What we know:
Helices cover 55% and strands 3% of the residues. It has helices at residues 4-10, 20-30, 57-79, 84-91, 104-107, 110-123, 126-129, and strands spanning 34-35, 45-46. It has a two-stranded antiparallel ribbon with strand order 1-2. The protein is elongated and about 65 Å long. It has two domains: 4-53, no CATH class; 56-129, no CATH class. It is built from seven helices and two strands.
Amino acid sequence: MVSLDDMREQLSFKNKRDYRLETALSFLDRWGVIRFPHRRLDKLEFLRDLEEGDLAAELWKKRKLSLHKKLMSIVQWFRSEECRKVGIYTYFGWPDSKPCGFATAARRTPDEKAFRQRAAHISRPASDLG
């Protein structure tokens, strides 16, 4: 019986923690192209061929844009001078939380804050500037 590990070894990558094979099989299972019960290859069934709509470029563009927006929001959160606790609480719907005072941003002097703001603006990629 061929296992996922056996298939992964036959692919051209070296990292044992590379789960692209499992991800691809999960997508095909979700789309109804294969049946992959309990992640067992010996039970793998092909149900239908891939169709043009399964690989629509517009869907992939929307997915890429959505992931890019999520990544940018994380980058902005890290660049923010806001207390991390307040940011997390606000994200989860508790907007009235108070800064903890332990965050690095809360302990910065006004001069340090001004310097960081200027440095962040200078080091920001041109794509962020609009």
